[in-house]
Amino acid sequence: MARRLLPLALAFLLGLSLAQDGKALYEQYCAACHGAEGQGIPGAIPPLAGNPRVADEAYVVKVVREGLSGPLEVNGVVYNGVMPPMPQVAEADARAIAQYLKSLSGASAQPPAPAPQVQGDPALGRALYLGQKALQNGGAPCQACHTVAGVGFLGGGSLGRDLTDAAKRLGGEAGLRAVLQNPAFLVMREVYKDKPLTEEEAAALAAFLVQVSQEAPRPASLYLGRFLVAGLVLLGLLLLYQAILWQLRPKSLAERIRSQLRR
Ligand code: HEC
Ligand code: HEC
């Protein structure tokens, strides 16, 4: 009897430990966006708890590994965001997460508690973005790698993508906050791993990016114009320099004789 129960018990324990791992992995990789209880953010990030599609393990693994975008509907609410692909989550880990999610589905799906949120200050966000105000934990300013139309003199870095429409792509202010506090993008994950943004900073940056996305798009030619102005100023300085050199040039012999004769 005991011998027959043993494999069952082991299988049960294995399943349990998988689900435990799944929980830890979920908290590491997914909770920032989908919420601690898988409740999602209405209208921005779909819930995973109580989501019928999430019962399909293969589907969850595919979404995690390949990302997902485009409109989808969960429990009558429409979502149209972008989940970045997360190849850093191993397939086995994704499966463990999927199993954990199944244990969430259904009963535990409560309506999302209205989390008390810090009000984001777009002006602060702008200063943080540009590096005019240092990030509290010493992270690099966003502008080092990103551009946002019309902000900063010559744009910004080009390692990351242009963030002008990031708010539209990533589920508005709420989605952005989540992304910034737990970036899913490899480079940013590394850069901010030991220097996370504070809640206030994430909120401010999100508010700033939402504001930017609502402004009329500025053409790239704006930067070209500024570039030309910068070029002309530089040229002017060079000419001035030349003129000064010309004034200070050593006098020629003939001139020296002439000025001696004049005396
Ligand atoms: C950067 C934020 C973010 C992170 C991190 C994230 N997701 Fe998502 N996820 C989204 C968004 C946004 C969508 C909706 C995409 C759409 O509208 O097409 C989504 C959709 C999904 C879906 C499809 C839901 C459906 O109804 O079809 C699944 C499944 C999913 N995510 C699982 C996960 C898992 C598992 C993790 C962790 C490994 C994770 N997500 C991490 C933002 C995120
Ligand atoms: C070291 C370079 C680097 C720094 C610094 C950096 N990022 Fe990123 N960021 C990236 C890369 C690389 C990606 C992912 C690939 C891409 O979207 O180009 C990314 C992606 C993003 C995305 C998702 C873009 C999208 O629409 O899919 C957002 C939003 C973002 N970063 C915001 C920020 C903010 C806000 C800051 C400042 C707190 C910041 N980043 C600082 C490199 C950086």
Account of the 3D structure:
By secondary structure, the chain is mainly alpha-helical. It folds into three domains: 2-104, Cytochrome Bc1 Complex, Chain D, domain 2, CATH 1.10.760.10; 122-214, Cytochrome Bc1 Complex, Chain D, domain 2; 229-262. Helices cover 52% and strands 4% of the residues. The protein is built from eleven helices and four strands. The strands form two sheets. Strands 1-4 form a two-stranded antiparallel ribbon. Helix 7 (172-181) crosses helix 9. The radius of gyration is 29 Å and the shape is elongated. The N and C termini lie far apart (127 Å). 28% of the residues are buried. One heme C is lined by residues 29-30, 32-34, 45-46, 48, 51, 53-54, 60, 63-64, 68-70, 72, 74, 79-84, 86, 89, 97, 171, 178-179, 184. Residues 29-30, 32-34, 45-46, 48, 51, 53-54, 60, 63-64, 68-70, 72, 74, 79-84, 86, 89, 97, 171, 178-179, 184 line the site of one heme C.
Secondary-structure-based class equals mainly alpha
- The CATH architecture name of the largest domain reads Orthogonal Bundle
| Overall shape | elongated
The level 1 CATH classification of the largest domain is Mainly Alpha
Reported by name, the CATH topology of the largest domain is Cytochrome Bc1 Complex, Chain D, domain 2
The SSE string, one letter per element, is: HHHEEEEHHHHHHHH
Strand order of the largest sheet: 1-4
Number of domains: 3
Bound molecules: heme C
Please summarize the sheet with the most strands.
Answer: 2 strands, antiparallel
Which regions contain 5 or more consecutive residues with pLDDT less than 50? 107-114
Radius of gyration (CA) equals 29 Å
For this structure, what is the CATH homologous superfamily of the largest domain? Answer: Cytochrome c-like domain
Mean pLDDT: 79
Distance linking N and C termini = 127 Å
Protein name: Cytochrome c class I
Keywords: Heme, Iron, Membrane, Metal-binding, Signal, Transmembrane, Transmembrane helix
GO molecular function: electron transfer activity; heme binding; metal ion binding
Pfam families: Cytochrom_C (PF00034)
